[in-house]
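agent> step 3/5: call structure_predict on target 'Nucleotidyltransferase substrate binding protein, HI0074 family' (Anaerovirgula multivorans).
agent> reason: downstream docking stage needs a structural representation; sequence fetched in step 2, passing through unchanged.
tool.input:
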Amino acid sequence: MYSRKKVEEKLSNYKKALDRLKEILRVSPDHSYIYDAAIQRFEFTYELAWKLMKTFLGYKGLTEVRTPRDTFKEAFQAGIIDNGEGWIQMLTDRNITSHTYNEEDALEIYTRIKEKHYGFLEELFKTISKEI
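tool.output (status=ok):
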């Protein structure tokens, strides 16, 4: 079982990562290293996001999950996240970026991070902040 303090610690760390991701997404992507930095920060923020969800679910006594996919499924059912498919797309993108590098894929994923994923990540912060 997880304590409120544990959830608050994870939420604080998550907020820091989310702010760093937001920071790089505001920079004009004039060079490929901006894409690389954004993707790296996305990967880190994504990892903190699913672990925060897992901890929050445990804190609420809802379930014990082990994988990101199971965590998203349970978080969706519990109303913690609204767009399960969006989170699964994030999982897919995260797996692509961490296992291979293709410039065309990187650009597509960067665009999804900026246009979609960041919004889901930010919404998670707001939802858990309200409930904790």
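agent> step 4/5: record observation. The chain has one domain: 4-131.
agent> proceeding.
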